[in-house]
Amino acid sequence: MKKIALFLCAVMLFGTVFAQSKKKMDKETMEWRYEIEPAVGQGAQGTYLVKVWSYAKKADKATAQAPKNAVHGILFKGYAAYNSGNVRIAGQKPLVTDPAIETQNEDFFNDFFADGGPYSKFVTLVGNGATDIIKVGKEVKVGVVVSVQKDALRKYLEDAKIIKSMNSIF
Hints:
Elements: H1 2-30, E1 34-38, E2 48-56, H2 59-76, E3 82-84, E4 87-89, H3 100-104, H4 106-112, E5 123-125, E6 131-136, E7 139-148, H5 150-159, H6 166-169
Antiparallel strand pairs: 1-2, 2-7, 3-4, 5-7, 6-7
């Protein structure tokens, strides 16, 4: 009987610690601490190939956040052009041009970026999720190359009435 009670206490303690860790990671996600840049390589038509640099105390957490950060970057930041030697990659503006849209549709975006949420349909790790890791103070900066399906993402947001259709402009 004592073993069962001890086991149940251990399970409850582990569950509490895990839930607090997940809650902290969700909070860190909503701070959106990342950088986004074009990645050198060939992406499929209708996609952007980007490298997203995520910050966290542990590399595995930063790597796990990379897909969310990449989609958030395509939506709200865009990225600057890249020019080096013979390689030129055009910069891209964000899909969402009005910064107020994120706060006006907070519930939509909370659900959208939830773990396993709709955002995950629009992003794919490239190169088996290989990462670059740089130590920055007490944190790490982790770079991951991903492909974001920007055309499908735009259509999803248009259908959800978050952004206006390109056709409505003309």
